[in-house]
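Private note to self, pasted from the team thread so I don't lose it. Backbone tokens:
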């Protein structure tokens, strides 16, 4: 009996040592390509120590490719999925709706942080395009907010919701699409798509 207990204890200890521990903060991550969401429309949680680590965790979970180039300025993400950077366009990121002034490998994350990677045209809008955030309100309605690189909010102009294959216009950043199935997303000209809600 004692021998069985010892063998079982050793087997459990070995199995536990083979399971990798998820290090880092538990953060939400989303990656928006030029024309489509590459990963995390609903912003799933991953474990990561920094914004570049969040991209790595997402690439493992979503099975997509990304490439990092090392330069005198530090690490630069020059491709995610099938979208390489080039000329005046490339990959940028925000943490909690703010564009940090340092590289993605330098931004330390905390539990609950939100990391957004998106493809942007540089120089079109000073500071980069606004990003949209979608929130559920009362009575099956949704509110859309546009955030600049500093995290300042405003009501987006000409924002629409995409729901069940149809387009619903917002008024003052709010729309009530009525009963629906599936995910709801917000889009607006010149802005990065919103997160998705059901």
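Design output:
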């Amino acid at each position: 009996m004692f021998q069985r207990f010892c063998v079982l204890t050793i087997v459990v200890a070995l199995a536990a040592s083979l399971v990798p521990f998820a290090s880092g903060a538990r953060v939400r991550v989303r990656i928006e390509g030029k024309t489509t969401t590459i990963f995390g429309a609903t912003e799933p949680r991953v474990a990561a120590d920094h914004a570049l680590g969040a991209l790595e965790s997402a690439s493992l979970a979503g099975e997509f490719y990304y490439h990092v180039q090392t330069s005198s300025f530090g690490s630069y993400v020059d491709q995610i999925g099938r979208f390489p950077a080039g000329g005046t366009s490339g990959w940028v990121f925000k943490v909690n709706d703010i564009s940090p002034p340092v590289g993605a490998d330098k931004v330390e994350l905390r539990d609950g942080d939100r990391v957004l990677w998106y493809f942007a045209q540089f120089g079109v809008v000073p500071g980069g395009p606004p990003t949209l955030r979608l929130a559920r309100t009362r009575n099956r309605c949704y509110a859309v907010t546009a955030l600049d690189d500093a995290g300042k909010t405003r009501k987006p102009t000409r924002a629409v919701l995409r729901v069940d294959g149809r387009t619903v216009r917002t008024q003052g950043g709010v729309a009530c699409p009525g009963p629906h199935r599936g995910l709801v997303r917000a889009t607006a000209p010149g802005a990065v798509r919103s997160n998705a809600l059901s």
